[in-house]
Amino acid sequence: MSKTVLKVEDVSMRFNLSSEKVDDLKDYVIKLIKRELNFQEFWALQNVSFELQKGDRLGILGFNGAGKSTLLKVIAGVLKPTQGKVTTQGKIVPLLELGAGFDKQYTGAENIYLYGAMLGYSKEFINEKYDEIVEFSELKDFIDVPVKNYSSGMRSRLGFSIATVVEPEILILDEVLSVGDEKFKKKSEAKIKSMFDKGVTVLFVSHNLKQVQDLCNKAILLEKGKIISQGSIEEVSEAYGEKLNR
Ligand SMILES: Nc1ncnc2c1ncn2[C@@H]1O[C@H](COP(=O)(O)OP(=O)(O)OP(=O)(O)O)[C@@H](O)[C@H]1O
């Protein structure tokens, strides 16, 4: 029997866009108190619903600003939806904006603990996996250096190594299949592939339709925050193709 590992129910996400120019924080606070700040409501996601079974690989398609990254962030728990509910079973590994959660004043070693805690790992678990993370990142010589002195590639390598040290049930990929330099990229791709081989459930956002077709069995197509097509990758690719050629 197939097992449902992700359920997205009627999810909507509203952002308040400030329609005025505010020069500084003081100005902002004064306007806020005087209720002179005007916000424009913007719905980045509207009534999005779908569910995935164990081993499903879902491609999320859509043009710029359609709501793809917002949906991934809601599923990863980075954003709380304005409306609706996301239910997940098992460990989620979000490979989103790798290393963006680092505190740059702290060293690589300290960030392994900080970032790990953010991903829900216990201190004992990180103690146990610490050497493996450092080894995979190939940053042993830099591990006691503040992250602000890392290159962006080094940051994403450390982020990738921390995030993938667990065996996830759900893997979230936002066009990050290329991490670091060519050598590391190969290694990270092999690691992702090994997760695929173990039957992980995947959510994948990419503008590269070919890549999505190669990787995914199901897809959804988003337009202005709404699902306008969902089903097998073949069906949804066709709907996307029609949009592209319009
Ligand atoms: N934190 C935020 N505050 C306000 N608006 C936001 C925020 N994050 C996203 N948006 C808006 O929500 C919409 C959807 O953005 P999102 O990044 O999810 O699109 P996307 O489909 O991933 O686009 P792209 O293909 O360009 O990456 C955009 O109009 C964007 O401006």
TrEMBL record:
Entry keyword annotation includes Transport: yes
Pfam family, one: ABC_tran
Keywords for this protein: ATP-binding, Nucleotide-binding, Transport
A single Gene Ontology CC term: membrane
PANTHER family with a match to the protein in the record: TEICHOIC ACIDS EXPORT ATP-BINDING PROTEIN TAGH
Family: Belongs to the ABC transporter superfamily.
Record's protein name: Teichoic acid ABC transporter ATP-binding protein
Organism in which the protein naturally occurs: Anaeromicropila herbilytica
Top-level taxonomy: Bacteria, Bacillati, Bacillota, Clostridia, Lachnospirales
